[in-house]
What does this fold into?
Amino acid sequence: WLMHYAAEQRLACYVVGGCVRDWLLARPVGDIDLVVEGDAIALAEAWTTVWPDQLHTHPPFGTATVSWLDAGALVSLDLISARRESYPQPAALPIVQFARLADDLARRDFTINCLALQLANQPTNVIDPHNGLVDLQRGLIRVLHKRSFIDDPTRILRALRFAARLEFRLEPSTAELLQQGLPWLDQTTPARLWNELGLLLSEPSAFKALSLADEWGVLQQLCGCAWPQALNHQAQCLLPNLPNEQLAISWLLLMSQLSPNAAQAQTKRFGLPKPIRQAVGQWHALATTAAMLNTTLSAGKLDRLLSPFEPLVLQVWASTQTPLVQQQIAYYLQALRPIASQLSGRDLQAQGIKPGPEYKTLLAAARERQLDQFAAENPNLC
Ligand code: CTP
It folds into this structure.
C-alpha cells in the first residue's frame, strides 16, 4: 500500500539509517525509519485511515510513528520528513528545516548510518553519498564532519555502542575528534545522556562498551570512574544467570568503582528509578559485611546478615568477592532464602506475648534456630 500511495502522490520515500546498515550486515533489523521528501505526518495519517494501526505524531519535528502487532510483537515504523538541522550552540537541540534526502543524510552521525534505499517497485541501488558501504566493509565508525561530536556529544556514546555491538573500530581522525568532543559531555543534559547511556548498558555488548569507554576516556569524563578489565570477566559470568538484568548489573558494577556518595550522586543525576538507587545503596552497605562473610557463618547467621539485601545485588556483589563469600551467598540464595519462617507474629500472639518491639527479636531468633536445624539436617547442601 505504502509504495502504491507514495507513487500516486509522487512522494519519494526512503528506508534509511540503522535498518539499512543491519540489513547489509545480515543482522536482525529492528525498528524501521522511513524518510519522506514531503509531509511524513500526512502520509502516516493517510496510512492509518486505511489500516487501523496505532499512530503517534510529533508535529514540531515533522515525524510520526505507526505501530502494529506482528506475530504478537509490536513493530514500529518511524516516518520522518526529510530535514536539515543546524545547532544554535554546542550540545543544544538542533533547529530543524524541511529539506531533501541528501540534506537528511548529511545531518546524521556516522557514515554507516547514512545509507538509504528508495522504496520502489523494482530493486534499486543503495544510496551512499558518504561512502558508508566501504566503512561498513572495513568495520569503521567515521563521522561526517569535524563538529559532529561537539554539536551532539551523545554521539560519543553512540560510537561506543556501535563499536561494541558490531565490533567496529573508530577511524583515526574520528578517534581524535571524539577526544576533542569529550569535554562537551559536561554541557549535555543528563536526560539526553541517559537516553544513549541506558541503551548502551542494556545491550548484550554492554561490558565491552564500558571497557572501550574506559579506554577512550569517556567514563572518566562522564562519571569520574574506571572500568577495570577484571570486571569484564566477573560481569560476563553473571549474565547467563541474569540475562534480563543487564542494565542494573552494568550500572551496579560501574557504580562499585565510586565512593558511596559519588555513586548515589551519579545515580540521582541520571534520574534512575528507585529500585536502582536502592540497589546502589545496598551495594555499599554490603561492603561492610565482607569481613564477616570471609569467615564461615552458621546458616542462621548467614540468613540474618543477608536477608535485608536484594538477590540481584547479592549476586552481582558476590561476583566481585572471594570464593568463600561467593559460596556462602550462593548457599543463602539457593537454599536458605526460599525457606518460609515457621513462626509468625500470630503464633507469638497465640502464646500470649503482647505485640511490641521484641517481636522482631523473637522472630529473628526463631528463624535463626530453624535454619541452623535445616543446615544440620541437610549437610550436603552447605
Ligand atoms: N542519529 C544521529 N544522531 C543521533 C541519533 C540518531 O545522526 N544522535 C541518526 C542515525 O543516522 C541513526 C538514526 O538517526 O541511524 C536513527 O537513530 P536510532 O534509531 O537511535 O539509531 P539506529 O542506528 O537505528 O540504532 P539501533 O540499531 O540501536 O536502533
DSSP finds 21 helices and ten strands in the chain. The pocket of cytidine-5'-triphosphate is lined by residues 17-18, 30, 33, 108-109, 113-114, 152, 154-155, 158 (CB under 6 Å). The beta strands are 13-16, 32-36, 54-58, 63-70, 73-81, 83-86, 95-98, 116-118, 140-141, 169-170.
